[in-house]
């Protein structure tokens, strides 16, 4: 698996917050307990992309979870623009045409992650969306396509991580959302693991949102998650 020197880099804190001011307060409260932050739609559309640039200038790592999916030229140019923000990761949906365009557009050290199947989906959701394959088979198919195209890593449920690792090999990243400490609620996630289980399954980075953002002491929760992963 890819080498990650700083154990704190394994935890990506999801800044799924209403505005930049709230995100700034959380980053300040976390201090040196966290080094890596995810910015998705909610914050991204509320000034979060400029905030991502500021975090990068502060030597923080950022993960732009934008899940791009459009015609090839639009994806390629969008990824090219995102490369200038100083981000570490950017997500695209794992459709072959989209992934090929993203690989063409990446630059400045940006790593492209392909989202196989959303962790809020189970087999019934996939069937409702028109997919003939169950979730596990759909994830494996998309992971293989991502490897062949040259994507840097995969976003999948921790429950599929070992199967994905067999497909993509040891040199690609695996990033998993839907991570919940043992005493945390599931929220709207259906396919989850604890941080220790995720690390034992060979996950490189875990994404954790509400258990940290909603905690009375987010710094303590972040440190606990990192320690749990290191002890796995």
TrEMBL record:
Q: What's the catalysed reaction?
A: orotidine 5'-phosphate + H(+) = UMP + CO2
Q: EC number(s) per UniProt?
A: 4.1.1.23
Naming one, the record's GO cellular component terms include: cytosol
Is Protein biosynthesis a UniProt keyword of this protein? no
One biological process term from GO is: 'de novo' pyrimidine nucleobase biosynthetic process
Instruction: Answer yes or no on keyword Lyase.
Output: yes
Record key words, sorted: Decarboxylase, Lyase, Pyrimidine biosynthesis
Signal sequence, renumbered to the chain: none
What positions constitute the catalytic site? 65 (for ompdecase activity), 67 (proton donor), 67 (for ompdecase activity), 70 (for ompdecase activity)
The chain positions of domain Orotidine 5'-phosphate decarboxylase read 10-225
Q: Name one Pfam family in it.
A: OMPdecase
User: Which superkingdom?
Assistant: Bacteria
SMART domains per UniProt: OMPdecase
Pathway(s) this gene product operates in, as recorded in its UniProt entry: Pyrimidine metabolism; UMP biosynthesis via de novo pathway; UMP from orotate: step 2/2
Read off the InterPro entries from this record.
Aldolase_TIM, OMPdecase, OMPdecase_AS, OMPdecase_bac, OMPdeCOase_dom, RibuloseP-bd_barrel
Binding locations of substrate: 16, 38, 65-74, 119, 180, 189, 209-210
Subunit relationships: Homodimer.
Name of the featured protein = Orotidine 5'-phosphate decarboxylase
